[in-house]
Design a protein that fits this description.
Length: 283
């Protein structure tokens, strides 16, 4: 038994619309392509008959999406910095806003003429930040740290998928605790949501991103405090740090790093103009 592509999309669109999903037809299309393993071209021009297995898979995907699960979570993959990353329930779903940090690091390194930096990524998750930088700098090497062993294992797989695993190590550690070396660049996108604000986040974040990747303590700043004091020892001479920051946190985070002897060099806005990344260096 087979089903017409268009009939399934129409049915899925109806279910998603009734569940209040914002772009129901787009998502139904994506999910059917995923269920039937069709490329975008095949979905537009190829055979439109979908077999029963794929139709049943599609139905399950539509049910999950209808409950608010993002399409990227259902796919188990996310594109970041034009690279492909596996994501699981143990990893944050990488955000496009975090590409600001990658762009900032590239710009600072270019300004300093550094082409083979040693990079440390604290709270690596899927590894998206470190792996993107290693892909940009073919002579760079890096270490990604996460307290979640599952996240560290996924990051290693992502490094292999993107061809940089021979230049990357992934370590399970409470921040810098297991790190004994120095680095030219330390990057981090730590959890920065105040604990009390987590309940009011959209369900696609609150329910599907790991709590460990979100919770920044009472005021959202506890992870910056945890890493600031150690940065002067982790950074080599002339080294710098780039951290992602939440909305409205720039001054407070700069003050935390300032208290650890680091000087702010620049605040980098995201595409919406919101300060999203802070770079600091040994003063
Ligand atoms: C906001 S996520 C960022 C993930 C990834 N770097 C990205 O930008 O998509 C923060 C990460 O920090 C990790 N983390 C939380 N507490 C940690 C700790 N004490 N030591 C190391 N990593 C930690 C979480 O498991 C999570 O992967």
């Amino acid at each position: 038994m087979t089903f017409a592509f268009e009939d399934l999309v129409r049915k899925g669109t109806g279910v998603l619309a009734a569940s209040g999903i914002a772009n129901p037809r787009r998502d139904a299309n994506l999910l059917l392509r995923l269920a039937a393993d069709l490329s975008p071209e095949q979905a537009l021009t190829g055979p439109r008959a979908i077999d029963q297995n794929a139709a049943q898979t599609f139905e399950r995907y539509v049910t999950r999406r209808g409950r608010g699960e993002p399409v990227s979570r259902i796919r188990g993959r996310r594109e970041f910095w034009s690279l492909d990353f596996e994501i699981t329930p143990a990893t944050l779903d990488p955000r496009a806003d975090s590409e600001v940090l990658v762009a900032a690091v590239i710009q600072v390194l270019a300004g300093r003429g550094l082409t083979a930096p040693r990079i440390l990524d604290l709270g690596t998750g899927s590894g998206c930040l470190l792996i993107s930088l290693l892909a940009e700098f073919p002579q760079a090497v890096g270490v990604g740290v996460d307290v979640s062993p599952t996240a560290a294992a996924i990051a290693l797989r992502n490094a292999a998928t993107n061809g940089v695993d021979r230049r990357a190590d992934f370590v399970v550690s409470n921040w810098h605790a297991a790190i004994g070396a120095q680095f030219d660049v330390v990057i981090s996108n730590p959890p920065y949501i105040p604990t009390s604000a987590i309940q009011s986040l959209d369900p696609d974040v609150r329910v599907f991103d790991p709590h460990l990747a979100l919770d920044g303590g009472r005021d959202g700043l506890s992870c910056y405090r945890a890493i600031a004091g150690t940065l002067p020892n982790l950074l080599s001479e002339g080294g710098f740090t780039a951290v992602e920051i939440g909305m409205g946190q720039a001054d407070a985070v700069a003050a935390i790093f300032g208290g650890a002897g680091l000087t702010e060099t620049k605040i980098w806005p995201d595409l919406a103009g919101i300060p999203r990344c802070l770079t600091v260096e040994k003063g």
